[in-house]
């Protein structure tokens, strides 16, 4: 139990408590701004599935403008985008029309309607302590096999960083095929790290104290 700043006492459960990295992303079918879609139809590509609290809200509007502007960069990485909120399909349509007219950009990636929150609850996108039933800003990075590789959760009052979403995707893709690691602040073109050795002989044979567990590699994915 936790005492919040406003004095409420609530059971604090991480929104994504039910799902973990390495889990299969739960499948669903739903109506979206791009027609009827099924999550499993995205197998074979990377997918960023993300929820937002509500249409026609300030931070969410900035996120959708930023993501629409970056859509081609996700596509270059063979990654689809899929948004979700509790709002109805017609609310999504009206919001996208407003965004197009005001910001001169068309949001073409699907926005799922989830009025019953059946998907939001399956993904832990609904904070149980919240008074309303809006989804928070959760983001799931799903690999081409349908496995969750990373997830983030931001509050309603802080927007996500599109460059950081792209960087996370780049890092996940770079480590996906082999036994390499992406260090802090890694960006494409920078060296990755080797997996640390599990052999004592390598520890004693290493030229210096750290080479056996902390060593850069430029050789791409280590198999
Ligand atoms: C926003 O996107 O600005 C927002 C959404 C829900 C609550 C507060 C802010």
Textual characterization of the structure:
This protein has 223 residues and is an alpha+beta fold. It has two domains: 132 residues, Glutaredoxin, CATH 3.40.30; 43 residues, no CATH class. It has five helices and twelve strands. The strands form four sheets. A five-stranded mixed beta sheet has the order 7-6-5-8-9, with helices on one face. A three-stranded antiparallel beta sheet has the order 10-11-12, covered by helices on one side. α1 links the parallel β5 and β6. The longest helix has 19 residues. The chain is elongated. The N terminus is likely disordered. The structure holds benzoic acid. The site of benzoic acid (BEZ) has 8 residues, from α1. Benzoic acid (BEZ) binds next to α1.
What tags apply to this protein structure?
Glutaredoxin, alpha+beta, five-stranded mixed beta sheet, elongated, single chain, 5 helices, binds benzoic acid, 223 residues
Largest sheet: 5 strands, mixed
Alpha plus pi helix count: 5
Average pLDDT reading:
90
Based on secondary structure, the structural category is alpha+beta
The CATH class of the largest domain is Alpha Beta
